[in-house]
Backbone:
């Protein structure tokens, strides 16, 4: 039986490469039974989606900085 | 009136680049560098590099992606220079040990709790990005860099190991600890707090 620590490692690894089928089945069984780990999985994927939306962040360069950049590009 | 447009394989007029692209490039640089003035410098450098190499632009991808690629390489070079004498073991030692989140049986000491605010709403909130930058800044620089190359730029783990000169076995430890630490930091400083100023 996998522990939460094992599952945490595997969840991280599964975001970066495919795990063997049997490992995935074991991990899924744990995730069905363990609410904390299931939350953790959901949150990591929300975080990924969020990071990919960084172009929607409301931060902008100041007009002053932009003017300086325009000058150097001339 | 006829609008003169460039053939698709030529870059647009560089005098329009700042207005067209600089904010978009800045958001990307800020995510990676966490520091506004360093991020501005990177954008400036990337725009200049784009200007000097615009003959190489082949129009196979949109101009913005071409510039983001140049910016990404500038940022990778920056960190590579900054850390060329630091072994990857330092990254692991500077991250919170993954064992510390679990008890002896491997169960959570304080596991993930349901989040009170919707992650999809956070993207448009400046306050959220400030918290995220602080959480990323609390990580070793190369750990946050590896994490962002994976999650934002979709680099494969093999590419990241090569770019950052870390071994495969170090990679898995770094990523696991980084995800644990970042998740906990965001939960404690944003998502588990009472819902933030609902616009």
Residues:
């Amino acid at each position: 039986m996998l522990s939460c620590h094992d599952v945490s490692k595997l969840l991280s690894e599964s975001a970066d490469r495919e795990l063997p089928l049997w490992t995935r089945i074991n991990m899924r069984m744990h995730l069905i039974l363990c609410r904390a780990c299931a939350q953790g999985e959901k949150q990591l994927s929300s975080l990924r989606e969020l990071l990919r939306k960084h172009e929607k962040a409301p931060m902008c360069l100041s007009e002053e900085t932009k003017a300086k950049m325009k000058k150097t590009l001339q | 009136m006829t609008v003169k447009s460039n053939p698709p394989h030529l870059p647009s007029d560089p005098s329009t680049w700042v207005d067209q692209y600089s904010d978009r490039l800045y958001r990307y640089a800020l995510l990676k560098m966490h520091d506004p003035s360093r991020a501005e410098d990177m954008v400036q450098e990337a725009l200049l590099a784009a200007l000097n190499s615009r003959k190489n632009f082949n129009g196979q991808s949109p101009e913005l992606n071409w510039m983001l690629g140049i910016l990404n390489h500038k940022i990778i070079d920056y960190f590579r220079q900054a850390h060329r004498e630091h072994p990857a073991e330092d990254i692991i030692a500077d991250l919170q040990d993954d064992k510390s989140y679990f008890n002896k049986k491997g169960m959570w000491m304080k596991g993930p709790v349901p989040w009170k605010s919707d992650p999809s709403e956070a993207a448009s909130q400046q306050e959220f990005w400030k918290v995220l930058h602080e959480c990323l800044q609390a990580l070793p620089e190369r750990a946050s860099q590896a994490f962002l190359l994976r999650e934002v730029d979709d680099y494969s783990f093999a590419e990241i190991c090569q770019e950052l000169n870390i071994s495969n076995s170090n990679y898995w430890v770094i990523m696991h600890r980084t995800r644990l630490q970042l998740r906990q930091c965001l939960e404690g400083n944003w998502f588990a707090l009472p819902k933030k100023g609902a616009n």
About this structure: The CA atoms of residues 21 and 27 of chain A lie 10 Å apart. Residues 35-51 of chain A form the longest helix (17 residues).
